[in-house]
UniProtKB/TrEMBL annotation:
Organismal lineage: Bacteria, Bacillati, Bacillota, Bacilli, Bacillales
Membrane topology: Multi-pass membrane protein
Compartments where found: Cell membrane
Transmembrane portions of the chain: 12-28, 34-60, 72-94, 131-156, 193-217, 229-253, 283-308, 329-349, 392-412
Name of one Pfam family that matches: BPD_transp_1
Protein name as catalogued: Maltose/maltodextrin transport system permease protein
């Protein structure tokens, strides 16, 4: 190995690449690649310097002069700047790694591939990334940017009485989260709505799963005739758009002219305040959700039950097992093993089931001393805070809590299911 090759240091190439993209490649005598990196960084700095400078300044200060600086626009520009910088940092990292690899190759005396060979290698190895990158960029600006914007609002004082451009926003840290558990009106409302959200999620989802499982087992019984007709009828509620069903039920449960009170309960001298009493409104919502949700669970369980071998039940009968023992030891474990992830999604979906709460009674009836309705769940409360009272900061704070709860619950349950643990081993 020549002394010149031994004196070639990868550390110098790395330092030069850190100072300015492409310098490390020039040090490695990879002139075309080095010039290309230099041009890319120069164009990036010339094009985005002012945008990034204003964006980062706006992200930190949220503006300094009312009616001139718009805090929301500055916040969005700052978040876009962060995404652009993150994307540029990834490319810069690959520039450094490339310089280090070329320097090590030169130090070992290995020949460099020609320009055509390099282009061919880049195309072969980078082909998937070329087609993934446009989708990734769109994902960043369509999904990640709105999420970052929402999270950022949770740490500002953005509300109806402090809106740009007349007023400037300010970073307030965790003040909004503290207000949820310390300020009386927010505290009472938050814990009341949160408790009802948990009850709603558990009771409504469990009832629809239990009803779907019961009907699936019943229809799957060999003694039942006309199975196709019965299954078709039971799946019909799923075929009707949910919002149509909810509006129909809202009319049926109406206190004054609804069919349930006027035509059914009136025969027994009973008139239930379905729309004006929070307790009975909650009961009605749970019943409606059970009706809306059981067809999907029924169809899901029906398919799983048909895959269970009859030999297992015959062997259990020969051992003297009762119906309950066969259900507990054969049917239920098999059904839950095959459907656990989808059932978890049912719970997560009902936790954020905005449609039924909004369409049935708009989260009502009103509750004294609270700024949420008697049947509002967290997601419908966020909607009211955003579009009715314009408490954007509190709505963003609650949205973060919702996201953490749903993602944490789903991750925990997925990791505990056998279907997750044994994935790839079946």
């Amino acid at each position: 190995m020549s002394k010149q090759k031994m004196r070639h240091r990868p550390t110098v190439a790395i330092i030069l690449s850190i100072l300015f993209a492409g310098l490390g490649q020039l040090y490695n005598r990879r002139y075309v690649k080095g010039i290309l990196f230099i041009v890319i960084e120069a164009v990036f700095l010339i094009t985005f310097y002012n945008f990034l400078n204003i964006g980062l300044w706006g992200l930190i200060t949220l503006g300094e002069i009312p009616m001139v600086d718009h805090s929301i626009f500055l916040l969005i520009q700052g978040l876009v700047s962060v995404i652009i910088i993150a994307f540029a940092a990834v490319l810069y990292y690959f520039n450094i790694i490339d310089a280090r690899k070329d320097a090590l190759r030169l130090q070992r005396g290995e020949p460099f591939p020609s320009l055509l060979e390099s282009c061919g290698n880049v195309w072969d190895k980078g082909f998937p990334y070329v087609f993934v990158t446009p989708g990734l960029i769109m994902l960043l600006f369509v999904v990640v940017l709105p999420l970052l914007f929402m999270v950022s609002l949770a740490f500002t004082d953005y509300n109806l009485y402090n809106s740009p451009p007349r007023h400037l926003l300010h970073w307030v840290g965790f003040k909004n989260f503290k207000n949820l558990v310390s300020v009386p009106i927010w505290q009472d409302t938050f814990f009341s709505v949160f408790a009802w959200t948990i009850v709603w999620t558990i009771v409504a989802t469990t009832l629809q799963i239990a009803l779907g499982l019961f009907l699936a087992i019943l229809v799957n019984d060999p003694r039942i005739k006309f199975k196709r007709f019965i299954r078709t009828v039971l799946i019909l509620p799923w075929a009707v758009p949910a919002f149509v069903t909810i509006l129909v039920f809202a009319a049926m449960f109406n206190d004054k002219f609804g069919a349930i009170n006027r035509d059914i309960l009136s025969a027994f001298g009973v008139m239930i305040p379905w729309m004006t009493d929070p307790f009975w409104t909650k009961v009605a919502l749970i019943l409606i959700q059970t009706w809306l949700g059981f067809p999907f669970v029924f169809a899901l369980f029906t398919g799983v039950l048909q895959s269970i071998s009859r030999d297992w039940y015959e062997a259990a009968e020969m051992d003297g097992a009762t119906r309950w023992q066969k259900f507990r030891s054969i049917t239920l474990p098999h059904v839950l093993y095959a459907t656990a992830p989808l059932l978890i999604m049912q719970y997560a979906g009902n936790f954020n089931n905005f449609n039924i709460i909004y369409l049935f009674n708009d989260g009502g009836p009103a509750v004294r001393g609270q700024n949420a309705g008697g049947t509002d769940i967290l997601i419908s409360w966020v909607y009211d805070l955003t579009f009715t009272t314009n408490n954007y900061n509190m709505a963003a704070a609650i949205s973060i809590i919702i996201g953490l709860i749903v993602s944490g619950f789903a991750l925990y349950q997925f990791r505990r299911t056998r279907s997750f643990k044994e994935e790839g081993n079946i």
